[in-house]
Amino acid sequence: MQSNYKKLINIYASDILENDKYNTQKEYMQHGKTSVLEHEMNVTIYSLKISEKFKIKIDQKSLIRGALLHDYFLYDWHISDKNHRLHGFIHAKKALLNANRDFKLNDIEKNMIYTHMFPMNLRIPKYKESIILCIADKIVATKETIKRK
Ligand SMILES: [Fe+2]
Ligand SMILES: [Fe+2]
Question: Which structural domain range is residue 94 located in?
């Protein structure tokens, strides 16, 4: 099952997965021992699982690409820096700016990235794909945080 999701992700997003800048995210830690790169992959797989389990009709390609790029903020938020202090509030916008610079995004993908921190950020997810990402991100983040203990 997991490998089917990986195959699908490769079909729709090989350009992202092979991008050098995208791969620098393995240097940045997200939760515990999980890098941002791994976190984004975990969230993408979980988002696909949610859409399948609840039989939600979605744009699979956009769901995959938006989820893979949702935390593309490109810094280590654990390193103290005055710009990182508000990480929870600012990183979605930063990720969108970076992703839009390095990849071609459609409206669904842009909205997914920009609103994924709802309700911490009061930007309401507009598409089914955005809502799924928002939920998957929180569940996966919790799992990754618990796992490190
Ligand atoms: Fe995030
Ligand atoms: Fe995330």
Answer: 2-147
